[in-house]
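Re: beginner question about structure tokens

> Can someone show what the tokenized structure looks like for a real chain? I only ever see the sequence side.

Sure, here's an example I had lying around. Input first:
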Amino acid sequence: MASAKKNSPIKSTQNSPHLKSARSVEITQVVEWREGETRRVEDYLAAEEPLEILIGRKPLVVTMRTPGNDEELAAGFLLTEGIIEERAQLVEITIPARRRNLVSVKLARGARIPSASSRRYFAANSSCGVCGKASIDSVRARNIRPLNSGFRISADVLCRLPDLARPSQETFGRTGGLHAAALFDGAGNLIVLREDIGRHNALDKVIGWALLNGRVPLNDSVLLASGRGGFEIVQKSIVAGIPIVASVSAPSSLAVELARRMRLTLVGFLRGQRFVIYSGEERIASGVETPELAKS
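And the corresponding structure tokens:
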């Protein structure tokens, strides 16, 4: 199999008619209690279905996700988990007819095909990310470019990012049950936003979008993540070359340690006119001092 060129088109089926049946929202009947009275109403639920990713015909992983942007999810997962290192190694992504919960990928020669034990490892960690101190060493051992040390964002722009992202969180607005990952440039312009039932899936969709559009490494971008800034969010961002990661909640201790070792700017508790810088304060152009202790 010949290696694909960097900017060659990837065969995709994301516009196939059978994919229109994939829904990110389900409607159900519920009983609402309010001020001592009950009534039966319709409510919206975020859809959650399994997605199996194959390399050729060999199963790689099954992950629970919100249907939609599945090819981006597969591409982002392959990159952030170290199976591929660049777009040129991803030759083809297909979703078989009438199999909306299955994605098959074809890799170029030289891509790292996971062993059976590695595939079991992916399956065990597909819903919660990788944990443990040894994981930091494994990230550092990978061939990852240094993050852009010259990229800056002002504190004022950073504080506006949650409000700038909210209008694009359509499914969250209807269900209240999805995470979001959004990329911005240094001026606060929204580049892309994806939603999913899982934080790491939302980020893989964003990174997959960037990979398929030839925009990796994302060295002039800021990631805004809903929920907490866990290890897997930081790890995936580093692989994609994102120099600044901000979340509306707290990071984990392992995420902070990895961010500091890899010189990533990590911001937590981004709410209103307040945030906490855990690592890389030099990229925040405001002279804000790093607090020693964050209070929720």
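Each token stands for a local structural state, so reading them left to right follows the chain. DSSP finds eight helices and 14 strands in the chain.
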